[in-house]
Amino acid sequence: MGSRLTGAVPGGYAPGYEGDLTDEALLKLCADGESAALRELVRRYQGPIFRFLARMMGSDEDAEDAALEVFVRAWKNAPRFQYRAKVATWLYRIAVNIARDAHSRKKARPKEVWLEDAALRDLSVGSAEEDALKLVERDMQSHALKRALSRLSADDRLILVLYYLEDREYDEIQAVTGLSYTVLKTRLARARRRLRKWMEDETSEAEA
Amino acid sequence: MNCKQFEIEVGDWVKGRAAGETSTQMERHSAGCSACARMEAEERSLLAAVDRMAAPKSVEEMWPQVAARLDRQVPARRPLFGKFAFAGTLAAGALAAVLFVKGPAPVPSPQVGTAQTNIASNGSVITMVAEMRSLPDPDQEVATIGLHNRSNLILGGRE
């Protein structure tokens, strides 16, 4: 059974799929067991899905593993997709579910890896032309934001990541979250308030 | 515009997404309300921090790993025959009843394919499978399913 996945087409690749077919057409081919179509979907969405998951989960390693799982689930569930939503939206929903599952399994906040070693090195080096204090202050704010995001609930983080980091429009966020426009705006305001509160705490901790 | 409305709209306003009239109301409110003016400043600071936030590392080609994971799994399949499952079941049942009364049918033509080689000793089942294959079949794997899976074929079941 598995051999048809990569064996149907040598290397699982069929030249001519790149850009020729819509996402929906590719998913229909996936439903028929055409692995080359999945390969093209992976090529199109691996970047956005990975970046989204990295921001949601706070860890590049966890995000990479989760992104792989997104495409595996998409392949397995392709025959059941009803084409009422965009394929891209569906992939994001799968990603959200995986991120939530991972969060529930760990029963803990995601790793706070936003400020990694490289960032710490940059923080201490600074630029000769810039005011060093301002540079440090700016990086501290960015660091506080990352840590504050990691402390929020998965629901709050999802809305904030889509609105601020992914810069999505409301209709796109609605499609992923399933929230109405009014509820979404209210929850966004509430999540923003919590984020600011955590950022203040992070900043005061850093200054203490 | 009150403070609650200001809080809901502040994100869009600072991002430059607010409509003209809303934008004017926000400016006016912020100018006269110190708490909301502070909220505006915090929102601008938040957006600046978002802009400076480093993007996650660039992603490597994921296909080899995806393919490796898929090779370890059995993919889900479409429901066999879909909306024709019930009709197919009825047809198969009727055919089986006729065969039971009249005895085994003659061995059909060789187009039956792989299924025929698996069940050559049972002509009635071959006929049944050949009959089923004439129905619309969304699942390409049906032709390779052996005798042990014929109940799935007939009942429209799934693995």
What is the overall pLDDT average of chain B?
Answer: 67
Distance between the termini of chain A: 60 Å
The total of beta strands of chain B comes to: 0
Poorly predicted residue ranges of chain B: 109-159
Instruction: Please provide the count of β strands of chain A.
Output: 0
Order of helices and strands of chain B: HHHHHHHH
Radius of gyration from the alpha-carbon trace of chain B, in angstroms: 33 Å
The gross shape of chain B turns out to be elongated
Give helix % range of chain A: over 70%
Rg of chain A, nearest Å:
20 Å
Number of helices of chain B: 8
Topology:
The complex is a heterodimer of chains A (208) and B (159).
Chain A: H1 3-7, H2 23-31, H3 35-57, H4 60-77, H5 87-106, H6 117-125, H7 132-151, H8 154-165, H9 170-177, H10 181-207
Helix pairs in contact in A: 2-3, 3-4, 3-5, 4-5, 5-9, 7-10, 8-10
Chain B: H1 3-15, H2 20-32, H3 34-52, H4 63-71, H5 85-102, H6 114-118, H7 123-133, H8 150-155
Tell me what the structure shows.
The complex is a heterodimer of chains A (208) and B (159). Chain A is an all-alpha fold. Chain A is 73% helix and 0% strand. Chain A is built from 10 helices and no strands. In chain A, helix 5 (87-106) packs across helix 9 (170-177). Chain B has helices at 3-15, 20-32, 34-52, 63-71, 85-102, 114-118, 123-133, 150-155. Chain B is elongated, with a radius of gyration of 33 Å. Chain B is built from 8 helices and no strands. The model of chain B is unreliable at 109-159 (pLDDT under 50). The interface between A and B is large, with 55 and 39 residues.
